[in-house]
Amino acid sequence: MRIQAHLLTGLRLALALPLAVAFARPDSLSPFVVALLLAAAIGSDYFDGVVARRQGTASAGGQLFDHATDCLFVTACLAGAALAGSVPPVLPVLVALAFGQYVLDSYWLHRRKQLRMSTIGRWNGIGYFVPLVVLAAARLELVPALTPLLTAIAR
After folding, report:
1. Where do the structural domains in the chain lie, given as residue ranges?
2. What 3 state SS string does the chain have?
3. Distance between CA atoms of 64 and 120, rounded to whole angstroms?
4. pTM of the complete model
5. Per-residue pLDDT tens for 16-36?
């Protein structure tokens, strides 16, 4: 059975709303389920590109779908976390603005037919997930003494 890269990206997109609600209302899902769903979303983000390249189905449209899904996923989850007071409200706004700038820079400023990739952009995209991972880890309370520190770091 061949796994379609778009299905992996679609999984992440489908997880955006339930996880956004979970970050907004920490009592709505168990911390373990939140961590598991977040891990699935991050895994889908890693493997969708790998699958597309291996199957020879990588395309500019798929890349845009992947990156737009990342933006929607992270922005929605950070907005939920902001509603709960776990991160500054400006953080999801900044993520959305940064993605908009990335698209404008790629398509209009550099006149490309696909998104303009860079090393710093890759690390920036990975960094968007960090507050969500830190919050999910803090809620697991695996090491109770670290929970206040992890919560403070996410803010």
Report:
1. 5-154
2. CCCCHHHHHHHHHHHHHHHHHHHHCCCCCCHHHHHHHHHHHHHHHHHHHHHHHHHCCCCHHHHHHHHHHHHHHHHHHHHHHHHCCCCCCHHHHHHHHHHHHHHHHHHHHCCCCCCCCCHHHHHHHHHHHHHHHHHHHHHHCCCHHHHHHHHHHHC
3. 18
4. 0.87
5. 999 999 999 999 999 999 999
